[in-house]
Specification:
This protein is mainly alpha-helical. Helix content is about 60%, strand content about 10%. A two-stranded antiparallel ribbon has the order 1-2. Strand 1 and strand 2 form a beta hairpin.
């Protein structure tokens, strides 16, 4: 019975060693969406991979910034809508349709979810 527990511990340590491979090393998550970019990427120097990952991260953040800028332009367009009414004295009154603060906060909450 003692031999069974020793072999079980040995098998567990083999599983732990295999499952602890870093994602940028061989056997550590080769099914990423973007990285590894090429098949033998894990063999490249760590500095080169770091620079490549840095450029990719900057590229993705730039994409998020562009989308956020477009979203903010849409918020400004919606919140800038005005309506004109003629009062009893015959004067035109221009009124904002949206409370700018509430509209902006609501649309930002929708955009961040």
């Amino acid at each position: 019975r003692g031999g069974d527990s020793a072999s079980r511990v040995a098998r567990m340590s083999e599983v732990d060693e295999g499952s602890q491979a870093r994602i940028c090393e061989q056997g550590g998550g080769s099914s990423g969406l973007v990285f590894p970019a090429v098949e033998n990427e894990h063999e490249w120097p760590a500095g080169l991979r770091g620079v490549m990952y840095g450029f990719a991260l900057a590229y993705f953040f730039l994409g998020v910034a562009i989308i956020a800028d477009i979203f903010m332009q849409a918020i400004e367009k919606v919140t800038s809508k005005r309506s004109q009414k003629i009062n009893q004295e015959g004067q035109r009154r221009t009124k904002m349709v949206w409370n700018e603060t509430v509209a902006t906060l609501t649309l930002m909450a929708l955009g961040s979810s």
